[in-house]
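Memo to structure team: turn this sequence into structure tokens by end of day. - J.P.
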Amino acid sequence: MEGHNVTDVCVNNYRSMCDTLDISGFLIQSPELIPTCILAGWIGYHAATTIISLKNARGYLAYSLTFAMFGTMMTDAMFNDCFLARHGNQHDWVHFMFMLVDLGLTSSVGLSFAWNGLVDIGWINENSRKTQVGMLVSYLGLFGSWAYAIDTSRWGAFLYLYIGVVGLSGLIYCVTEITFKIRSRSWDGMGWVLVAFLTGAIGLAGVAVPSFDLLLCHTFGCHFGGNFLWFVLTDVAMWSCYKFYMATLSSRTVSPNPPTQSVEMAYYPVVYVAVPTEPIM
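Reply from structure team:
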């Protein structure tokens, strides 16, 4: 590293060398990401198991799936970005699968928030088979697109499948939740949505805007660039979304046995008329 300034460390291969931990010959890339991944895994699975138990709350199925995917994605990212990044053939099937799960679930988690927002405002029914098939097809479509992009090294897809899908879906979620709160005539928990939106947007800028990434690297060093900011603020954003869901349970509760409309019976006096059995005339 001697003879190179800080700028060199941030803009070329020396950054990767700088951000590598060597433990008795075992290289770990970006070790600072490991705690954020462990925390993310806990957030994801804790939120998923909590929400899935709330059977009578709107969004329980869609949100629990989102958090389960998030926990899985960040656990996979820890292996893909940290433990496997400096080992083996980067083009073998093991690296391919870990990268596919990482990128495919990242896009799917982003898209799932658009689905969650539509569920919250009642545009779609998460218990409908058509909705469930539509969600599944959308996720499989993202995985298929990423598989093609990775296999053909079309990394320009990162702009659309990663930045585009996550950014647009986050915006849709924010708009739909504002609509949801207006309809429910209660702003309880709205602060959590705003925190999630702001932290998610700033974190995404860390990996989407190269100049911002370089500024962070120059200011805080090679370990704390845009990628680190993205991982940290993603945890904050997802925890905020979980807190928002729990804070809005009163607006989500649906009675499992909706009361049937009572019908008031009107009773009238019965008049008996004697009918002669023989002709009068």
